[in-house]
Amino acid sequence: MDVEFLGGAREVGRSAILVDDSLLLDYGMAPENPPQYPVGDVDPDAVVVSHGHLDHAGALPMLMSGQSRPEVHWTPPTRELARVLARDTLKLHGGTPQCPFTENDLMRLSEVSHTHGYREPFEVAGYEITFYNAGHIPGSAHVLVDERGRSPASNRTQSGDDGGTRLFYTADFHTTDQRLVAGSTARPEADIVICESTYAGVDHDDRSAVEERFVQSVRTTVWEGGTVVVPAFAIGRTQELLMVCAAHDIDCYVDGMGKEVTKLVRQYPDFLRDAEALKRAKSNARFVTGRDGQRKRIAADNTVIVTTSGMLSGGPAMTYVPEIRTLPVNKLAFTGYQVEGTPGRELLETGSAEIDGRVMPVSAQVERYDFSAHADHDGLRAFLASYEDAEILVNHGDDCEGFAAELREDGYEASAPELGARVEC
Q: Please, which residues have CB within 8 angstroms of residue 322's CB and are 6 or more apart in sequence?
């Protein structure tokens, strides 16, 4: 089995992995300026998409522009979330070099789409594929790629016992329960594991303790007459924060793409940990229309606003941050990873950021809370303890090489392929 890393190798973003020149695992983009896309030319027979985040599915419509259009396989929520992202990209950048696909490409994507649930094997491009809950966002999946020609699963006693190869692509995953989704528990046998490493070297604080600190900080700011802006990723993080607010009786607004995503994921209760809790959270939040100066009026209230974008790179946050930035009683509460080079990262490091083309110093309090939907260092190691005899290929991280070296020191066969590398397994 040949595995080629077209994106997400020794970096976070634009994940794309090509197996035997025929099966593509994810096809994402890195939301930089300008956006970065996977390297190389591909013409796969099929694409399997792990989940509906921009860095894993954002470039998918590009594959629809040619005459040969690959089948696309994903879970039902991932299909819908990818469409939302693609429409947003078209809205923001359609017709410019920053958007390398068209509305027609997006329409063609629907024609080749096939959805599957967890633990429901299907055959495609010469492989048997099985999705397992990855515990990252609704519909997120680990992907098991099993070469055809192997014995039926019912007769299989040991990985590799008949000369075939089983590749397990973790994609993004979390081993701990969140309010929105349950943590990953599946550990199918595999010969090769492509493992993400976003938080290798980092230990998350206990989630309940993080939540308590967030709640107390928000309550204090509102009680003192301030406004709290919570930049949040539209997919996953917005819903998680709305559920936190509802659980602690904190009134809040929700703005940006997160409104549409919240309505969308509620249509797939089987992919949620507690569908009723999300229903209550939606009822607790007030959806912002953005009409007639509504956002500026809300920013002047002592309230909580959960809004895109999570890294201050666009969305309604571009209105809220300038409105609250000058008063120390106000607060910006980041809840997720800030990629290097984004305004959110710049603000955390320097106290100012470029917002809508202007560099703005921020006097409001700036805090960060680790509501990560990725496994931390201990979670990654606990996960990989089930794969001590497998070959580990580390990707999707800021220090893939360092994590791979650590694994080798502990007896694993591990490496961190470079971008564009082709690995024969």
A: 355, 356, 360
The residue assigned the tokens 């939040």 is 285
Q: Which residues contact 284 (CB under 8 A, 6 or more apart)?
A: 242, 245, 246, 251, 252
The label of the residue with tokens 């895109």 reads 308
C-alpha 81/C-alpha 280 separation (Å) is 21
Rounded Cα gap, residues 143 and 201, in angstroms: 24
Q: Report yes or no: 131 and 116 within 8 Å, Cβ to Cβ.
A: yes
Give the N- to C-terminal CA distance of the chain in Å, as an integer: 5
* 100: confidence class by pLDDT, cuts 50, 70, 90: confident
CB 255 within 8 Å of CB 392: no
- What class has domain 207-368? alpha beta
Considering only 240-249, 270-279, 349-358, which range has the smallest mean pLDDT? 349-358
Q: Using an 8 Å Cβ cutoff, are 290 and 320 in contact?
A: no
Among the listed residues 49, 52, 51, the one whose alpha carbon sits nearest the alpha carbon of residue 23: 49
What are the domain boundaries of the chain?
A: 2-201+374-424, 207-368
Contacts 24+ apart (CB under 8 A), 98-104: 98/34, 98/35, 100/37, 100/59, 100/62, 101/59, 101/61, 101/62, 101/64, 101/65, 102/61, 102/65
2-201+374-424 maps to which CATH number?
Answer: 3.60.15.10
Residue-level pLDDT at 47: 98
| Cα 155 to Cα 127: distance, rounded to the nearest angstrom | 17
Q: pTM of the predicted model, to two decimals?
A: 0.93
